[in-house]
Amino acid sequence: MRLALLAIPVLAAAGLLAGVVTRSPEPVPVVETPPPTAAPTPAPAILVDVVGAVAHPGVVRLPAGSRVLDALLAAGGMTGDADLFALNKAATLRDGARIYVPHPGEIVPAGSLGSDAERKLDLNAATAAELDGLPGIGQATALRIVRSRDERRFTRVEELQTRGLVPPKVLADVRDLVTVR
Question: How far is Cα 135 from Cα 173, in angstroms, rounded to an integer?
Answer without folding.
Answer: 7
